[in-house]
Amino acid sequence: MERSKDKFKVGLIQMTSSHVMDDNIRVADELIRQAASQGAEFILTPEMTTLLDFESKQVLKKITIERDTSWRHFSSLAKELGVWLLIGSIAIKVGKKATNKSFLFSPEGKKIATYDKIHMFDVNLPGEDAYKESSVYVAGTEAVVASLPWGKVGLSICYDLRFPYLYRALSHAGAVMLTVPAAFTEQTGTAHWHALLRARAIENGAFVFAPAQCGKHTNGRRTYGHSLIVDPWGKIIGDGGNEIGVTVTEVNMEQVVRARNSIGSLTHDKNIVIQTVS
Question: Could you tell me if 64 and 102 are in contact, meaning their C-beta atoms sit under 8 angstroms apart?
């Protein structure tokens, strides 16, 4: 397939992943194929595509080390379909814990890049149980930018969204697309999801692609859904709503140039010295 330098179709996969890994892989496979059939050239799945289990002991029993895990299925699928494919994240065993890892595959099925989630979701939400991601997962230490045919993409995962400096660093490293696969809770999603994604797009003059988990999961917890495609001016051009499915939208990378030429804030960053007065 001849690929346009500036225009391409992006496809976001929205899922309600469960604690049964084989079921999740089957659903993801079906939805990725559906997105490809609609012309998507870059397809993204949500955080915890293959396993969304809130019981830490069960997670560690089910997952495997990186050299022997489900990512190989998606590598083969990317090659079969001839698409760029980002698996939002897979839990990978690392010692006695796990890492929350994104995988980016080329249309040849090559593993181009991986990214380990840096910021752990350790929070106490009003009216809900506490979340302590760090009890199961080891935080990543390095940001990642990879090259696609249409420009560079900066990788992130879910709770990373609340840390603007990460996206600034990715953009300064050349990223014109930012990926945010997520499993936002219904409560935090309702309050902040759209605002945060639009802010990251506007701040950096970049496209934001955010595939999400949705609906009620095995243990009763709910995720927000609304997989979003946001353009560099902050306009939402694709929204997956709150049901399992696929959102495919054409994007034009010339919009990045126009946005950054209009508001060149990336070139105006300064090192700030703070004076504290008591």
Answer: no
Main-chain phi, psi angles of 176, to 5 degrees: -115, -5
pLDDT-derived band at 36 (thresholds 50, 70, 90) equals: very high
- Quick one: which of 249, 263, 278 has its CA closest to 8? 249
pLDDT digits (tens, 9 = 90+) for 259-270: 999 999 999 999
Our answer to whether residue 47 is catalytic in this structure is: yes
At the topology level, CATH places domain 7-267 in Nitrilase/N-carbamoyl-D-aminoacid amidohydrolase (3.60.110)
Q: One of 9, 41, 117, 133 is an active-site residue; which one? A: 117
First to last CA, the chain: 64
Residue 57 catalytic? no
Over residues 75-105, the pLDDT tens digits come to: 999 999 999 999 999 999 888 888 999 999 9
Which of 41, 133, 158, 186 is catalytic? The answer is 158
214 is catalytic: no
Catalytic residue among 47, 93, 101, 186: 47
pTM over 0.90, yes/no: yes
Tokens found for residue 278: 């008591």
